[in-house]
Amino acid sequence: MESTLKELSNGESVLDIKDKCGVAGGVEDMYGEDRATEDQTITPWTFSVASGYSLLRDPHYNKGLAFTEVERDAHYLRGLLPPSVSSQQLQEKKVMHNLRQYQVPLQRYMAMMDLQERNERLFYKLLIDNVEELLPVVYTPTVGEAYQKYGSIFRRPQGLFISLKEKGKILEVLKNWPEKSIHVIVVTDGERILGLGDLGCQGMGIPVGKLSLYTALGGVRPSVCLPITIDVGTNNQKLLDDEFYIGLKQKRATGQEYAELLEEFMSAVKQNYGEKVLIQFEDFANHNAFELLAKYCTTHLVFNDDIQGTASVVLAGLIASLKLLGGTLADHTFLFLGAGEAGTGIAELIALEITRKTSVPLEEARKKIWLVDSKGLIVSSRVESLQHFKKPWAHDHEPVKELIDAVKAIKPTVLIGTSGVGKTFTKVVVEAMASLNPKPLIMALSNPTSQAECTAEEAYTWSKGHAIFASGSPFDPVEFEGRTFVSGQANNAYVFPGFGLGIIMSGTIRVHDDMLLAASEALASEVTEDDYLKGRIYPPFTNIRKISAHIAAEVAAKAYELGLATCLPRPSDLVKYAESCMYTPLYRSYR
User: Fold this and answer.
1) What span, in angstroms and rounded, lies between the C-alpha atoms of 376 and 401?
2) Contact (CB, 8 A) for 145 and 449
3) Binding residue per annotation — 10?
4) For residues 463 and 439, is the Cβ–Cβ distance under 8 A?
5) In terms of DSSP bridges, do strands 483-485 and 478-480 run parallel, antiparallel, or are they unpaired?
6) Residue 236 is labelled as binding a ligand
7) How confident is the model at residue 34 (pLDDT cuts 50, 70, 90)?
8) Which of 142, 381, 439, 456 could potentially form a cystine with 105 if both were Cys, beta carbons 3.0 to 4.6 Å apart?
9) E strands along 112-155, which residues?
């Protein structure tokens, strides 16, 4: 075999040099690694044996001090661990104690990411058992700061990075991933991360975080999940000037160059993983998000969480709120601040639900829904200048520039914020909503917390306790005039994990709008009378795995009904089947 080592000037390889100096710390330099100069290549040799050392560094199998005495003998762990043997429960207690010592949320996030890279099962055990406490750490709002500083806190790569450098070789890149059976891919190009804008390659935290929730909340095995970032550059000058930025230092590719890279990616995914791999688009900019979903929804199993997942979660809250508001969806008027992916996606799903319940035409149902963008109320006189996804919402009305004037003119019963701009539901806006409705429903959905249209305290205080409030990021309970209000969180994590599980367990080959409606109704049905008494229109996250199983069952049932499911015969009890499919993070015993 031809040597891969560069020859020295006298014809010798670095392997031919005698190791007289003990450059490897007194150990013979077998592979020439320490003697090679910087311009000489070496082979990155590795070996695989039943070694305790490698076992302790494999996050899939590492149990730390929970290895039993028998396992320590069988797997050569003697001396590599302290003599104490701990249970997983004791390990969990210790890690939670340590996490609570951190005063800065970003420190908790980094500690959790370190744990995930060190001990996968303990990470998920912690997240499942302490979901309400840790979800804000590994997801919104803490992730916003983590993604902004991703280059600085980057320690070890997670997922696949596919950049313009890999054009023409994407299939090869996919084959580099160690797991060959993949069921869910979450992919981003980092152009519109939360409400933070273009974070380029640093958007990788989004796919990693979302897939952690697929496992913790939906029970999808971590080994079948693949996070991917497509790096086509960034238009964020601050990142381009940052010496620690980890992505391509160039302006974003657009047009044909961008489309060709995405086409190659989608084709390679289907070729490598098959027809039934779920591809979740995450945090693409509006213009690309709608085009990608429209282009691939008939040829691939695709789902856009920003458009479809958000819509399903918000619709669930609206359906649940009817017990407090009264009437049907068709009896209410909806006003949105924000007309991007989330706003138009929610609006369309509301219109579809109204159509399904009342049999009125979709165009008629849309007239109950009004949107405000950066230029004011979307009306028919603006239709020529509107982006294509806004045109269905251009109704007959005189132009209105400000949100407060739109509230007074439209007189909505429901106000929904998807603008990504904080503090836009001002005191006068909330007071106006309260003057028009005995129980105004206000949903400030933008993430992270700093971008929320208003806070829970502001909504309850300005409405004098009459508002029903929900938000995208969590808020603490609010005391007002002797009553405690617990706001709901319209968090996508309620839907996409269970939705994905339902698709996987049924072998669904395409996503249909009726499956999103089924997920919404399943989530709404989980809200209890106790939740309503507290002012909540979403159930607590403590029951999220039960909720996810119920959503998965309803989504799968709809897929079977539509003829889109391929796993036959259909299980008789889909809820029990969903629960049986769920990953559990308890430690396994090793032979």
Assistant:
1) 4
2) no
3) no
4) no
5) antiparallel
6) no
7) low
8) 142
9) none
Residues 6 or more apart in contact with residue 337 via CB below 8 angstroms: 343, 372, 403, 415, 416, 417, 418, 419, 424, 425, 453
Distances (CA, A) of 118 to 63, 122, 454: 9, 9, 39
Catalytic residue among 63, 125, 150, 210: 210
Residue 36: the pLDDT is 52
For residue 566, give both structure tokens: 């391929």
Report pLDDT digits (tens) over 135-173. 988 887 777 777 677 666 666 778 999 999 999 999 999
- Spatial distance between the Cα atoms of 426 and 405, rounded to a whole number of angstroms: 13
pLDDT at residue 427, as a whole number? 97
- Token look-up 């238009």 returns 235
> Is 447 labeled as ligand-binding?
yes
pLDDT for the residue 240? 95
Catalytic residue among 109, 124, 139, 273: 139
Q: Determine whether 175 is an active site residue.
A: no
- Kindly calculate the radius of gyration of the chain based on its CA atoms and give it in whole angstroms: 26
516 pLDDT higher than 60:
yes
Predicted TM-score (pTM) of the model is 0.88
pLDDT digits (tens, 9 = 90+) for 260-297: 999 999 999 999 999 999 999 999 998 899 999 999 99
| The residue type at 446 | S
Please name the residue ranges forming H helices in 32-87.
52-56, 69-74
Quick one: which of 481, 403, 417 has its CA closest to 449?
417
**Is 210 in the active site?**
yes
Token pair for 405: 């004037």
- pLDDT tens profile 561-578: 999 999 999 999 999 999
Quote the strand ranges of 361-440, DSSP E: 369-373, 376-377, 414-417
Please indicate if the annotation marks 130 as binding a ligand: no
470: β partners: 443, 488
Rounded Cα gap, residues 209 and 221, in angstroms: 14
Is residue 306 annotated as involved in ligand binding? yes
Kindly state the DSSP code that residue 302 receives in the 8-state scheme: E
CA distances from 186 to 24, 174, 228, 303, 315 (A): 42, 14, 6, 9, 23
CA dist 297 and 516 (Å) reads 14
Distance of alpha carbon 213 from its chain centroid, rounded?
7
Q: Is 514 within any annotated ligand binding site?
A: no
pLDDT of 50 > 50? The answer is no
**141: cis peptide before it, omega within 30°?**
yes
